[in-house]
UniProtKB/TrEMBL annotation:
UniProt xrefs under Pfam families: DUF34_NIF3
Lineage: Bacteria, Bacillati, Actinomycetota, Actinomycetes, Catenulisporales
Keywords carried by this UniProt record: Metal-binding
InterPro entries documented for this protein: DUF34/NIF3 (IPR002678), DUF34/NIF3_sf (IPR036069)
Subunit (UniProt): Homohexamer.
Name of this protein: GTP cyclohydrolase 1 type 2 homolog
Length: 281
């Protein structure tokens, strides 16, 4: 009996076409840089790695694990460049990727706005359901930054903060909370990544608590003084990490339905830049 034939590997062009269908580059913010950074579109792709940050450890892992494509949320380049010599860390990474046969693709604010996108995965990890965009895009109420939804039942803010800490990968910064810890919360707003420009949207949506990352002193203080909602601040990397498995699953299932096949893995390397926390006092 002949052995069954395995599904053929897609080309990089096939994978990029699919990714850009799910995370349309047109949804990216004007300042963003998304899409294919390096790689030959005609090369086959058998293994795809997913990570938040295109940093050296992640690239080394992709090469060691035989990945043909690395998909990251954060861009390697946000500003225009005139060359990629290996005289700085970004140039060295490009050279390392090319020598290792690993293409690099970025889905950033287009993945933030997608449905489902980064904040859907974040909210679902917290058990929040019935999601709608926090800041909807004009002309399409399903797309937009952030999500708002409901917990099955109200719970004290302190319990909700513990829920957040348990749902996300551990980081040295942990979870910070602003608000009355006994206050019951049920309507939840989330924004993966830095979200302190959406305090007004969270308040308008009637959120009891807003969960995001990179909150600064003055915006957070002013948001509380303006009437809330309560705030939960997490590490930027941790807030976006749940999306990786969603994106990997979408890629596998869509390619499988088309008769091609890839293996995927989600990097568990903690690329949050903060490595230690020392309590004051």
């Amino acid at each position: 009996m002949p052995e069954p034939q395995s599904a053929p590997a897609p080309t990089l062009r096939d994978v990029v076409t699919l990714l850009e269908r799910v995370y349309d580059p047109a949804w990216a913010e004007p300042w963003d840089a998304v899409g294919l950074v390096c790689g030959d579109p005609d090369e086959p792709v058998r293994t795809v790695a997913f990570a938040v940050d295109p940093v050296a450890a992640v690239v080394d892992e992709a090469i060691e694990r035989g990945a043909d494509l690395l998909v990251t949320h954060h861009p390697l380049f946000l500003r225009g460049v005139h060359g990629v010599p290996a005289t700085d860390f970004k140039g060295r990474l490009v050279h390392k990727l090319i020598r290792g046969g690993v293409a690099l693709f970025t889905a950033h604010t287009n993945a933030d706005s997608a449905d489902p996108g980064v904040s859907d995965a974040f909210a679902q990890a917290l058990g929040v359901r019935d999601l709608v965009p926090l800041d909807a895009r004009a002309g399409n109420p399903e797309l937009g930054i952030g999500r708002v939804g409901e917990l099955p039942e109200a719970e004290p803010l302190a319990a909700f903060a513990r829920r957040v800490a348990a749902a996300l990968p551990a980081t040295s910064g942990g979870v910070r909370v602003a608000g009355d810890l006994e206050r019951p919360v049920r309507r939840i707003a989330v924004c993966g990544g830095a979200g302190d420009t959406f305090f007004g949207a969270a308040r308008k949506a009637g959120a009891d608590v807003y969960v995001t990352a990179d909150l600064r002193h003055h915006p957070a203080s002013e948001a509380l003084e303006a009437g809330g909602p309560a705030l939960v601040d997490v590490a930027h990397w941790a807030s976006e990490w749940p999306w990786l498995e969603h994106a990997a699953g979408t890629l596998r299932s869509t390619l499988g339905a088309a008769g091609t096949n890839v293996e995927t893995y989600v990097s568990t390397l903690v690329t949050d830049p903060w490595t230690a926390h020392v309590a004051a006092g």
